[in-house]
Amino acid sequence: MPNVPAENKLRLVALYALRYEQQSNNALPILLDLLVTAGNVPSNKVNIIPKLLAYHHSLQAPPVAGGFTDLFESTSFFSGARDRFKGLKGVENVYTQHSPRLEVTLQNLIKGRLKELQYPFLEGSGNTRDKPQDIIIFMVGGVTYEEAKMVAQVNASSPGVRVVLGGTSIHNSTTFLEEVDDAVGSWPEPSPSTAAGRLRREVGR
């Protein structure tokens, strides 16, 4: 597929890796090899995929006993998809059916349903059952266009509620993978018993 940009090939294999890494008969090692040998993707770019899996696994670490519970409700990237895929009628695009985690948090905030252990308030400033009207969200590490679209939809569909979204940057898939590459590259080598560790060993042959 010479007409397909290398970045698109990498994105497709990255999505495949996130979706099928737990299946023992997945074709991920073959796809990684094909990216280099037939896809003209540099090996250092291909190595981002096992780093992405390592990052994914880090989000699923169990909470520390006695501390804050997981703000992002550690689950697979694809968990909850069954509830979201309820047919294509009325859906703008099949690729926009995914809902960002921020949407769940924002809707719970608007409805006064946030868990106080996860979202504590400053003393005397209110409690999680209060229903705010003016909301400022700032994402350290960057926001995505999908999150910006979701916030715009919430503003349009929630009379009396005004949400402002900001962040340190605006991400697309390329900038996100670059940050994962930089961050995970400084971590200790993953155990060979993990999928990410096995893939990194294979890619680095």
From TrEMBL:
> Which GO BP terms apply?
vesicle-mediated transport
Gene3D superfamilies listed in its UniProt record? 3.40.50.1910
Write out the ranges of the annotated region (Disordered). 183-205
Q: Name one Pfam family in it.
A: Sec1
Which family, according to the similarity comment?
Belongs to the STXBP/unc-18/SEC1 family.
Task: Return the PANTHER family for the record.
Answer: VESICLE PROTEIN SORTING-ASSOCIATED
The molecule here is called Sec1-like protein
Q: Which organism is it from?
A: Penicillium atrosanguineum
- Organism ancestry: Eukaryota, Fungi, Dikarya, Ascomycota, Pezizomycotina
